[in-house]
Amino acid sequence: MTQGREPLTIMDGNPPTCDFSTKTKRGVYLSKSLAFVILIIFALALVATAFLVYNFAACPRTDQLANVTKYELTHCDQTKLLVIPLTTEINKSFVPVETTTVLFETTTEEENVITDVRLPLNVKPDSYYLKLTPYIIEGNFTFDGEISIIVTVKNETKQITFHGVELTYHDIKLLKKENGEEIKVIQRTEDVARQFQILKLDEPLIAGKQYYLNISYTGILNDNLHGFYRSSYEEKKVKRWIAVTQFQATDARRAFPCWDEPALKARFTISIARPSNMTSVSNMNIVGRQKHDYLKDYIWDHYAESLPMSTYLVAFAVTDFGNMSYNNFSVWTRKEALPSAAYALDIGPKILKFLEDYYKIEFPLPKIDMMALPDFKAGAMENWGLLTFREIAMLYDEGVSPTTAKARVASVVAHEIAHQWFGNLVTPAWWSDIWLNEGFASYVEYVAVDAVEKTWKLIEVFVLNEVQSVFKLDALTSSHQISVEVGNPEEIGAIFDKISYGKGSAILRMMNHFLTGSVFNAGITAYLNARKFCDAEQRDLWGALTNAAREAKAFDADVAVVMDSWTLQTGFPVLTITRDYKSGDIEFKQERFILINNTIDDQKSPVWWIPVSYTTASEKDFESTRPKLWLRGERSIVVKNITIDPSDWMIANIQQTGFYRINYDRHNWELLIKILNDRTRFQEIHPINRAQIIDDAMNLALSGRLDYKTALDITSYLTHERSYVPWKAGLVALGYIDTMLSKGAYYLEYKRYVLRLVSGAVQELGWQVADGESVVRAQHRVDLLSTACHLQHVECLEHAVRMYTNWMLSPNPDAYNEIHADIRSTVYCVGVQTGGAREWRFAWDRFTVASSPSERELLLSVLGCTRAPHLLYRYLDLSLRNDSGIRKQDTVRVFSAVASSAIGEPIAFNFVRANWQRLKDYVGSISTMNSIVKVVTRRLNQMHEYEELQRFVNESCSELGRPVLQVLERTAANVQWMQRNYQDIIDWLLEVEKSAPPISDA
């Protein structure tokens, strides 16, 4: 879904006091200076001892947990779900509190530097009983909470440490579960840096015994889109407030005191008090309702006890939404948007049924709710039994939303339902292995949608969205391992990125192909059954897959040995294949692919276990994706038994199932260029491999491993290409050159070259959208038309301007818009770009009244298409104002839209630098700040721009961590690219221009 430090020393009680008199009891006299020296030595020894004791006893380091104090979760409750009403014992577990009285001393420990944020493991939670009363009232926006946590003591201790942030505590009591006897809480200490609440007790807790920890408190319904937060929307010009949750990764602690780590699963029994004119929803089904004791017009909703689950998966919402249901599925959204949830309600149960068969494990909860929220930071969240979404990710309006939006809804719904097993049923022991959640869900979403919406063939675009897309990030030295150690919340949030999602899904797909689908699925089912309701590490998955492979006699190696080379190392390899055309020998050599070449010594470069599939001009077998040979952690091998005619081409990595790039010797590249440029024969190569050849060649050239003449010669075949996947790969690869040349003197020659490539495909697709077109064809049209208009193709511009003008002239543009939803993005952008303030204001007015999420999102993007600097500055300013109508969740979209042009990028970057503190105060999220810095700097490619960026980072945002280092490295790569390749590309374009036919352009 979103960094090392020295641990704090938290003493048990007050430090001992010592009376350092000038005489000992035996009458030996000490001088004042000697006494002072002894005092200093003693104090230093005391501090050192405290640090040692704390490090090795109270808060063990994460690398010690496996050997010393990690919980051995040998008992995982796998009982069937019992739906029971709230019991009297649960109600009795709450001790009445005096909210005005604090019965214990409270202190605060503040420290800027921390190294370990893991909780001490002396106490673990078994069950939470949570009662919440949110006050969704303008001017209040707080909530009252009462919680009773049954804890089991693992090791005798006089301290209890748990998480809690931005909560005001009224009363804390600790009771023995066996007899209700109270244990006095002497002191509560808050470790702010680690978000710990530490209770000091006046007697030790006994190992093996259970206790009730009862706490009453008040929290804030914040507006930062995390924890328990408030959101609003307008219906018939009336502002309506709701209260909802988003806890992943570390924000459950903002809603209730808890052990907020994924491995510390417990059962939850939740009660929500809500206004009688609203409804509440939570993870489980409602088992009872009753009037509130003292709040008039408030109702208690009592929910069934949950299965054991992690705190980050707890969810609840209090809304006035409407809902629709089908069997055990329900969708919730604003009442006027409810019809738009029909498609999600239709496809959700189908995906659930497919995944139950796919995993061979029934969904264990009694229901699933899906809720579309007006304000939501992530795209969606997989809370067990209550999936929450941005509206754009769940709502689809026939005739208003583009065809591609339907695929987006299907994919996101499939992703979140896939998590109900991978992530919810079995949860990573720590965030280091979050890729087990996100990688698997990112892979299975394609499998599931492909099975349910068979005509879309969405699985074909996997290599574009997940493989080739993540290569760009993973080619940086500042990338990270898939399985990476993380500590504080900022580090945890930073690994919710393309590595965890895209690379994780890509290596799972690679395994599926080298193990075979039947073995892979058998291993997955065994893994889930073995660890259900528990936590797991990646080695648990490797073990299950190894066993499945050995039982089927399908794979002779240990899966852990193979896959650790992919998950525990940063980056990915480029496999260079060099053929000896006389002897027939073929060398396969691997090295890490780095964007800025020559930054790693070849001998120090990591090595991978690489599965190699291949075919030749004689075979043309693009269906057999199982490897024909392996590089088993070897830098190179020479193979002598491959028979290929010297005149035949060779293509490796069939359908790009392996997560690596391929480079060939010059002659094999020439053979591939020849077949691709043959209009009658290029389709002999699988379209995914045509896309791979373009993407590999252009990126090999980008990094200096292949000359740009060869790479650009390959792109020339696109004049007769009509398939989406290779075209998209070509447009993305050429798009980088577009970005780099857009501020240069020879951009016109580049525009003419690409316009010659796209003209035939644009003419064939045209502007007319047929009924029932496939998602892939719809996306193909969007990409090609937007490219043609971006490059100022005269007919494209004229057509788009005409349609936009007609729309502006219609008497009721909000009710009547004849521009087909699939082409609106191009038409709107051209209309705003070629117009002035009037055209921009028209789009802005449409945005302020639009109710469709897809239309609002589209208008947010096209408002950045204007070339008027004052309008761009105005738009950026509006995005940081609460009263503008631009939601906080969309701030990044605004900055990205403005920075998407050569004119807008410096405006956006300058605005960020000039308004940095205002930006930080407004968005309230480091991950959002990172995203904004990333989008406003992607066009920087001059040394002085890099120096400005470096100075800005050093002065203002060095705390952003790894993501900002990636921005710096990418900018350095852009500068190096300009110095190394700019002139070569200009020379190539000028040479092509000489022999090319004229083309109509602006």
Kindly describe this structure.
- Mean pLDDT is 86; it is low at 2-35, 45-75, 77-106 and 108-112.
- By secondary structure, the chain is an alpha+beta fold.
- The strands form nine sheets. Strands 6-5-9-3-2-12-15-14 form an eight-stranded mixed sheet, with no helix packed on it. Strands 17-18-19-21-20 form a five-stranded mixed sheet. It has a four-stranded mixed sheet with strand order 1-7-8-4, with no helix packed on it.
- The chain starts with 31 loop residues before the first helix and ends in a 7-residue tail after the last helix.
- It contains 29 helices and 31 strands.
Ordered list of secondary-structure elements with their pairings:
Layout: H1 32-58, H2 88-92, E1 105-109, E2 123-135, E3 142-153, E4 157-163, E5 167-176, E6 182-183, E7 185-191, E8 196-205, E9 210-220, E10 227-235, E11 238-246, E12 267-275, E13 279-282, E14 286-291, E15 298-303, E16 316-319, E17 322-326, E18 329-333, H3 342-359, E19 368-373, E20 380-381, E21 386-390, H4 391-394, H5 403-418, E22 426-428, H6 435-452, H7 462-474, H8 489-494, H9 498-515, H10 517-531, E23 534-536, H11 538-551, H12 559-567, E24 573-579, E25 586-592, E26 609-612, E27 614-616, E28 629-632, E29 636-639, E30 650-652, E31 661-664, H13 666-676, H14 687-702, H15 708-715, H16 724-741, H17 747-765, H18 775-790, H19 794-809, H20 824-834, H21 837-849, H22 853-862, H23 869-878, H24 891-898, H25 904-914, H26 916-923, H27 926-936, H28 943-957, H29 962-995
Parallel strand pairs: 1-7, 2-12, 18-19, 19-21, 22-23, 24-31
Antiparallel strand pairs: 2-3, 3-9, 4-8, 5-6, 5-9, 7-8, 10-11, 12-15, 13-16, 14-15, 17-18, 20-21, 24-25, 25-29, 26-28, 27-30
Helix pairs in contact: 3-5, 3-6, 5-6, 5-18, 6-9, 7-9, 9-10, 10-11, 14-15, 14-16, 16-18, 17-18, 17-29, 19-20, 20-22, 21-22, 22-24, 23-25, 24-25, 24-27, 28-29
